[in-house]
Design a protein that fits this description.
By secondary structure, this protein is of the alpha/beta class. The protein contains 18 helices and 14 strands. The chain has 3 domains: about 25 residues, no CATH class; about 140 residues, Enolase-like, domain 1, CATH 3.30.390; about 260 residues, TIM Barrel (Alpha-Beta Barrel), CATH 3.20.20. It is globular and about 65 Å long.
Length: about 475
């Protein structure tokens, strides 16, 4: 009988590809197999966090973001709590547009609750296996309650983030693991093996952020900023607005220098959120960038085209990154085959389990990754930071990770939320001169993600 390991050896198919559809592999020689974890009890709750101002992209505007907390208790009596920041607009703009803002959030929360009920009574070797087991049923339920047969998988994955994080914490508790490095299964360690001393802090500059605020951010030390393009209007109007925006930005900060890039120039990271309908339109924007001397500084253009257009981009002369279109590891491989040369990982939006799988298939194909935000809470920022800290360096930069965090720009109660972080005074928590300092304490404590969270523990006091 052929084992999965024999199959990998004889076919050359990546271990992660086998894992995607066939559960987990046996432990490596000399490594004790993980304990089987059985989920005996589940619960959930949520909080609504208001934003400073309406946050607009993809043709919609959010005014608040729901934060759900997911509780798991094992048959041995151990418990864990995982957090999720919901973003209906990002995960499926159709669902967002079809419902009130609260209605869309309620649908995603209902999907979370359903997922927890499916998980109750299940046993798993690793959370990756658990996700593989439940995702099809959770996704099908999402299609049903949204009345949307074409529901994007990211909607289901976003709803599963808290439950998946809780599963990882329960898995760690049952097996006596105390650090992020220990919980990474062997199949995914190649992609997550670095220990950067710094990670670039990436802020988000939306359409309406004035140029002087972008200049101010550069003066504070930020050097790798995410700038929204694909502005409202017809394709012609959008292009002209984007050309003017890039011109103004390049004029303001194009001559600034940074020690973090190999050429000393500031890299430009543009996010189009799928607004460009034709390759020719994007090429016109790139021609404009050449004409003003900004082309060589474009490090990334993220999601220029709508996912359903299926445009081959191998001939586009800049590094294009896939974000929401890389729902799963299978989707990521497809995007890479289409010519995408970077993947924006979102452990805080597509689950840590799926992110490990995506990171590994990208690593096996020499495609660099970085971590993008979902305007998440401070604790989830450190889940993201743990991934970013272990990825290979991004081309053109020195030895450092890349992690976006824009919560401080958007939440009305950011400092209160920061107070809920169990390591709120850690040296790595706040950016300094545009980077997060990832010291020994960060790696020793994994940024605090394994620590008890008193604020959230109180939500489930009756369950323990």
């Amino acid at each position: 009988m052929t084992t999965r390991r024999d199959f990998v050896k004889t076919t050359g198919i990546a271990v992660s590809a086998v894992l995607a559809g066939a559960g987990t592999l046996e432990a490596a020689p000399g490594v004790a197999p993980s304990k089987l974890v059985t989920i005996a009890e589940v619960s959930s709750n949520f909080e609504r966090e208001p934003l400073i101002r309406p946050f607009g992209f993809k043709g919609g505007y959010m005014t608040e973001i729901w934060q759900s907390a997911n509780f798991l208790k094992s048959s041995s009596g151990k418990h864990s709590i995982g957090l999720c920041t919901q973003n209906v607009l990002w995960s499926d703009a159709q669902v967002f547009a079809a419902h009130s803002e609260s209605g869309g959030n309620a649908l995603m929360y209902a999907l979370t609750e359903r997922a927890l009920q499916i998980m109750k009574g299940q046993s798993f070797d690793t959370p990756v296996q658990l996700l593989d087991n439940i995702l099809p049923e959770v996704y099908a339920f999402g299609q049903k309650i949204t009345s949307n047969a074409g529901l994007r998988k990211t909607f289901a994955l976003n709803a599963l983030v808290g439950a998946d994080n809780a599963a990882w914490l329960l898995y760690a508790a049952e097996n006596g693991y105390a650090t992020f490095d220990e919980i990474i299964p062997a199949a995914y360690k190649p992609a997550l093996s670095r220990h950067h001393k710094q990670a670039a802090a990436i802020p988000l500059m939306a359409y309406n952020i004035p140029i002087n605020e972008i200049q101010s951010a550069v003066e504070q030390g930020y050097f790798f900023m995410k700038i929204k393009i694909g502005q409202p209007g017809t394709q012609e109007e959008m292009l002209e607005k984007d050309k003017a925006r890039i011109s103004a930005i390049h004029k303001a900060i194009g001559n600034v220098r940074t020690p973090h890039t190999k050429d000393g120039k500031l890299p430009y990271y543009f996010d189009a959120n799928g607004r460009y309908e034709k390759k020719e339109t994007l090429l016109k924007l790139l021609d404009h960038a050449r004409n003003i001397g900004a082309f060589d500084q474009i490090a990334i253009i993220e999601e220029p085209f709508a996912e359903e257009l299926e445009i081959d981009v191998t001939d586009i002369p800049v590094r294009l990154a896939s974000d929401e279109s890389a729902h799963t590891d299978v989707d990521a491989i497809r995007r890479i085959q289409m010519g995408y040369k970077a993947i924006a990982l979102k452990a805080i939006a597509k689950t840590l389990s799926m992110t490990m799988k995506i990171a590994q298939v990208a690593y096996e194909r020499n495609i660099p990754c970085f971590c993008a935000d979902l305007t998440v809470n401070p604790i989830l920022v450190d889940w993201n930071k743990n991934v970013a800290a272990r990825l290979n360096s991004f081309p053109g930069l020195g030895s450092l990770g890349l992690v976006e965090s824009n919560g401080h720009q958007n939440y009305k109660n950011w400092e209160t939320m920061m107070g809920n972080h169990p390591r709120k005074d850690g040296a790595w928590i706040r950016q300094k001169n545009g980077v997060y300092e990832l010291d020994d304490e960060f790696y020793k404590t994994s940024g605090g993600i394994f620590d008890p969270m008193p604020h959230y523990e109180e939500m489930f006091a009756s369950k323990k």
